[in-house]
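Structure, all two chains, one model.
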Amino acid sequence: MFTPHTESEIASMLKTVGVSRLEDLFKVVPESCRYPNLDLPAALTEMEARQELELLSEANETAHDLACFLGAGVYNHYSPAAVDAIIRRGEFMTAYTPYQPEISQGTLQAIFEYQSLIASLTGMEVCNASHYDGATACAEAAVMAFHMFRGKRSRIVLSPAVHPHYRQTIRTYLQGYPDLTITGDETGVDLQQNPSTLISSIDENTCLVLVQYPDFFGRIYELKAIMDAAHAVGALVAVSSDPVSLGLLTPPGDLGADIVTGEGQSLGLPLSFGGPYLGIFATKKEYIHKIAGRLVGETIDKDGKRAFVLTLTAREQHIRRERATSNICTNQGLMALASTVYLSLIGKSGLKQVAALSYQKAHYAFKRLTQLPGYQAWSSSPFFNEFVIKCPKPVDEINFHLLDHGILGGYDLGLTYPELKDHMLVACTEVNTRQEIDGLVNVLSEVTHE
Amino acid sequence: MNIPKELKYEKTDEWVKVDGKNATIGISDYAQEQLSDIVYVDISLSAGDKVKKGSVIATIESVKAAADVNMPVSGTVLEVNNALSDIPEKVNSDPYVTAWLVKVELDDPQEVTGLMDGAAYEKYCAERAH
């Protein structure tokens, strides 16, 4: 057992508080509860414990053991071994951005490079040092837009095709804003026609229009019409995007977005049972004083050498004190670093290739699956690496069957969209082989015949 | 320290210059000195806004802190010095003239009598220096 104090220190402390034994401190706890007899098996040695735990962990099946067609916000892309090797270097061991930041030039430079890469990828002017994940980055866009208009605009138009978890997180973040209305994603809205039907909800009281592109159902759609409608009444537009898709698609920034957020997991981070992930947040230069978190900038030191500084932390507690409206002290430094290393390693053409392969494989899967009797395409919109397919049986039943064949099936949309019962969201990445996709098609065709 | 005698001052270091039923508002020399180098001024008002005494009207950000500016009197905003966002350093160099923040029409010109005069404010600043 780890004991930080010596016997004499403990004796001295007990004397000071006026009790004779350590046990006396727990007298208020009923005696029967104080030291109950626990029915535990005999203690194991480290070696035995490890063997037992390893045996248990072998019962797990992960994306490495299965052919993975599950996406819905996080994607099973390949991450080169060098990413992990580089981020584990001793120099990067402390990913925490320190309160005397300029002493850690390496950390600041890594964040600066991250910001530059993401700004370029999203088509925006500035990018902050990151948030926890795609959901919290999206919620920060809502908070920022609300404050931009100083509470004078109280309506947020939210697309129902934004990731359901992100929409929950936005509502959690904004639950303390009593006058704010979040509209657009009510149950019963026509998901097929969205997000373009959002346009009719945009009015002069709207501070933000928040959409996902490609949307949660994988669709690529006319983004400009929504942008124009929002900008016509002076509202901001935030777009949540999978950064890998931007290897192929026109960046939302180039289409006029005021804020671009995203889940950075697809940039070389492991699935890792749900995190840690990376919240991307990029915006226009004119809004830098309104953003949460921090910005690292480049300057020169007193000898004229290139140096990095924590340029802006406009809403953080060490500058705003008790009036701070952002507390992202620990940005996802290590994850931002991993995505920076990933992007640097694969480069522009590599990212384009990852995006193109994911696109093509998803389209091959779509073509084969929609030819199967009993399976139907849900939408005729163009899509990126994910699509919705209507199944002849409940998705959980199908997925159970797929698992028997070493296949991790798609997301059961009925879980979050009741009207999409029996609809599966299927994702492909460059990792999926043609054999895997053919295997999926074969098993799904068997399901119909049972 | 420069404390013009003809102005009125609030405990939170804003000055008020009264001109009939109108008033101009800014932050004092003492306040700018405490903040040190000012890098950003964000005035959260526009003409026509009705503002109550005590509400936050601006945020001034320096290299070491960001501070809120409070409304020292109640009134209706006539004009906002938006030019300051491009020349925030003027709050340091010229807090009483170039770096005024807002002009308002007073709800009640009598309200300013509750504020400190130059002499009282000078004493107030000296006390805080210790």
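The helical segments of chain B are 29-35, 90-93, 118-128.
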